[in-house]
Amino acid sequence: MSTPYNPETVELSAQKFWDEAKCFEVGEDADKEKYYCLTMFPYPSGKLHMGHVRVFTINDVIARYQRLQGKHVLQPMGWDAFGMPAENAAIQRGIPPAKWTYSNIDDMRRQFKRLGYGYDWTRELTTCKPEYYRWEQWLFTRMFKKGLVYRKNSIVNWDPVDQTVLANEQVIDGRGWRSDALVERREIPQWFMKITDYADELLQELDNLPGWPEPVKIMQRNWIGRSEGVELSFDVKGEDEPLTVYTTRPDTLMGVTYMAVAAEHPLASKAAASNPEIAAFVADCKKTDAQEATLETMEKKGMPLGISAIHPLSGEEVPLWVANFVLMSYGTGAIMAVPGHDARDWEFAKKHGLPIQQVIAPVDGSTFDTDEAPYLDHGVLVNSGQYDGLDFESAFNAIADFFESNGRGRRKVNYRLRDWGVSRQRYWGAPIPIIYCDDCDAVAVPEDQLPVVLPEDVEVKGTGSPLKDMPEFVNVPCPECGKAAKRETDTFDTFVESSWYFARYACPDSNDAMLDERAAYWAPVDQYTGGIEHAILHLLYSRFFQRVMRDEGLTDVSEPFTNLLTQGMVLKDGAKMSKAKGNVVDPQALIETYGADTVRLFMMFASPPEQSLEWSDEGVQGSYRFLKRFWTAVRDHAAGGPVGTIDTGAMTDEQKELRRKTHQTIAKISDDIGRRHSFNTAVAAAMELLNAINKLTDQSEAGRAVAREALDAVVIMLSPMVPHICHTLWQTLGHETALVDERWPEVDESALELDQVEVVVQVNGKLRGRVTVPVDVSKDALQAQALADANVQRFIDGKAIRKVIVVPGRLVNIVV
RNA sequence: GCCCGGGUGGCGGAAUCGGUAGACGCAACGGACUUAAAAUCCGUUAUCCGAAAGGGUGUGCGGGUUCAAGUCCCGCCCCGGGCACCA
Question: Which nucleotide is nearest to A759 (CA to C1')?
């Protein structure tokens, strides 16, 4: 009678063993090949949800697999602890954000430990602690001195009722989430980091990241959005300053029939000052939130400003409009409109009765009516005077040369990427280390006065930062002149903390420097795992910060993450699980019922890691049932006593077959985990092998030896997914060593050899028969045997054979 | 609106380089064991025709390339993610 599988006992005892043996605490050992395996750290929102379990399990599987390959593996964990939810909780429950956050961290850490992840907890870091954020404050002051940060006005969502800045997430259908008031755009001064200084390098180096998924690289390329165009000036009647626009299509210049500026553009403001209708329109344009999706989908509205620009080639007047779809944050905040060859300009021209002028014709000489639709492709210039007949490239160069020679324009590389606004008008974040002095302007807090510590004992009301009401925080002497000055009360975007934490895990206790020599050992991260929703912002900011740290002399490494795995979302009812949507599934109950191994196994088995996973409670049972069968199979086998040795020269067909299956499975799972990250098929292959072991009837010593080899392999290969049960079963199989210190099994190529192979026979591509032939059969013999098949004969009978395709070892296709 | 994914049985998914569509599991159904239930074990299960052998259809929709298409190309539809202040 076998001991039944009790997950809780098994799991707690394995965890105790790992803890006491300090299995996952790693130092810097120069003799060993390091492998830094990292997960995007969690925001401590309260409890673990299924998305967490998925991503952390994926990474733990890779970490444990690499350790079994003999690598020196670091897998750390920490907390992305600043953020809005803590302020919301504080408003709702009256608990200070810090207290709420630390309590969540304690709960989540307990859950992590219960799931058996192989973390080095001695390196745990928490971003809301001054010993962490002091170093990003320090780096900011270094960037300030280098001119890599600057202050400028930029647009935020303004809630006119609560008198506060709203995050995009707090804007629901254009209204403030608490006040329900219509949100407005407002300009306030904010700090920016010059990520655009690195735009070219960030773009170029994507080509040297073979370990990144192609879609992520494409998204980053598009986000950076490098374009080659021309910046050119149009004189404006009655204005001293010309109006500058940027275009990637100078070849369409003669098709300009109007121009448009953003509502925030100085020319619009000037016109509004003397015309109440324009003033009303401009004010109306600002009555919308600042999200790009809103601006791009809203109805395109505009109004003539009553002034004209002078076309720089024709000298004709073109009307100047203000339009809501022109964005102040892109380019110069003004556009030249070519409705004949631009979709948006065309739509706007149709709506407002503006002329459409065709200046590009298809290369093949066909006609195209730009009155029916805009012609967007490159082509040949028409109606463009001296430029007629030129193709895109010659026209581009001719026009660019013309503008450069008369000093009215220049070739320019433009980026869609904008500088990173890091100011947040919120309390629960790292204070921006700046002091404003009437005489000295903005002054960086000197190094010896860092960190600027965020007071933790506060009351959050939801209308502006409580820091503003704390004179002891705000009122400080100017570090330069000593006069009374005021501290910045804005805090950093929380993306600042997550842009360098991966480097800090190497030396979380370093009090003398942001990074020390230990970082040189561990950097870069070998494997980074996290949600696809971070494909652009977090990953791009981290690549930027890594370079800023490099240029500050802190590291030699330019790219922070060598290999990237972007895991799909865990969806519930078709949408991302989030607190805001209230569709979060709590894994705790499942862990209590079935144990951590079952939950881990199900997560890995349910779908491939890169795809989204629609959560369903069913199916977990199946994983549990499998672990029970696994447990019983190993214990029953072990109860049979000692096994013989494998004599490859004297095996029965049944033994050979199981042994072949064992080594095929080792090859498959190694590839599935190591190269493909296809954990679901790895689990399926292990299940198949266990089914084959259970079917083995041969109870002889030789037969049991083959079964033992198979079971040893299954136990090791499943251990990355279900480490607890495997830890115990490894002992059950009589091994004295700890499974975590074992090595991955090797494929015995000779076990894979086959005598016969089944080949499919098709007639006109349809399956009509199968023939079994020796593996080394000649093409001719294979073809002859395929043609002889009775069912195949029925389909080719009386017809002329036109062609026969023979794919050795796979199929024969007879075309009649 | 723009950028990136995805769509295969009742369900999750497999098919890795253009070569047997549906591995593995869930659910369901039938059977064994049991006084009974649970658990466990054995079997069936894309769909239609057929007693069977076998055949027709079938990977979101419409076209195309190919001896051969879930896989490649063109045009759509639907779902998910991102769009710079959610993290």
Answer: B20
CB A38 within 8 A of CB A32: no
Paired residues of A772 in beta bridges? A758
The answer to whether A182 touches A168, Cβ cutoff 8 Å, is no
Q: What are phi and psi of A112, to 5 degrees?
A: -60, -45
| pLDDT tens profile A67-126 | 999 999 999 999 999 999 999 999 888 899 999 999 999 999 999 999 999 999 999 999
Contacts of A402 (CB under 8 A, 6+ apart): none
Which nucleotide C1' is nearest A291 CA?
Answer: B83
Which one, of A257, A353, A269, lies nearest residue A308 by Cα?
A257
**E strands in A291-447:** 302-310, 317-323, 334-337, 360-361, 380-381, 409-414, 420-421, 423-424, 434-437, 441-444
Alpha-carbon distances of A422 from A140, A191, A378, A538, A671, rounded to whole Å: 11, 6, 39, 13, 42
pLDDT tens string A20-60: 999 999 999 999 999 999 999 999 998 888 899 999 999 99
* Beta-carbon count within 10 A of A185 CB: 18
Q: Which two tokens stand for residue A777?
A: 């059969």
The C-alpha atoms of residue A451 and residue A137 are separated, in whole angstroms, by 7
- Distance (Å, rounded) from C-alpha A397 to C-alpha A251? 9
What ipTM was reported for this prediction? 0.96
Q: Which nucleotide is nearest to A85 (CA to C1')?
A: B86
Distance from residue A801 (CA) to nucleotide B55 (C1'), in Å?
Answer: 22
The letter for the amino acid at A34 is K
Do the Cβ atoms of A75 and A120 come closer than 8 Å? yes
Structure tokens given for A542: 């981290």
> Tell me: the pLDDT tens digits for A599-626?
999 999 999 999 988 777 778 999 999 9
- Show the CA angle centred on residue A359, arms to residues A357 and A362, nearest 5°: 125
Helix A620-639, helix A679-695: angle, nearest 10: 40
Mark the nucleotides of strand B covered by protein, meaning any atom under 7 Å from a CB: 1-6, 11-16, 19-21, 23-27, 39-42, 54-56, 67-69, 79-87
Burial label, A377 (beta-carbon count in 10 A; 0-12, 13-18, 19+):
exposed
A543: closest CA among A132, A135, A38, A201? A201
CA of A184 to C1' of B81 (A): 27
Quickly tell me which residue has 């304690």 as its tokens.
Answer: A106
Give the integer Cα–Cα distance in Å for A105 and A83: 14
As a rounded value in angstroms, the CA-to-C1' distance for A665 and B16 is 15
**CA to C1' distance (Å), from A251 to B13:** 51
Which helix (H) or strand (E) element contains residue A232?
strand A227-236
Crossing angle of helices A701-718 and A653-671, in 10° steps, is 10
The whole-angstrom separation of Cα A246 and Cα A492 is 32
- Fill in the DSSP letter of residue A252: G
How far apart are alpha carbons A679 and A623 in whole angstroms?
14
- The mean pLDDT of A162-166, rounded to a whole number, is 91
CA distance A123 to A519: 13
- Widest Cα–Cα separation across chain A: 106
How far apart CA A652 and CA A103 sit, in angstroms, is 62
Q: Rounded to whole angstroms, how far apart are CA atoms A516 and A754?
A: 56
CA distance A22 to A392: 66
- The CA angle A27-A28-A31, to the nearest 5 degrees, is 120
Return the SS3 of A699.
coil
Q: Which nucleotide is nearest to A293 (CA to C1')?
A: B83
- State the SS3 of A412-459: EEECCCCCEECEECCCCCCECCEEEECCCEEEECCHHHCCCCCCCCCC
Residue with tokens 């989908």: A297
Q: Which residues share a beta bridge with A442? A: A436
* A555 in Cβ contact with A503 (< 8 Å): yes
Lookup: tokens for A597: 């191994």
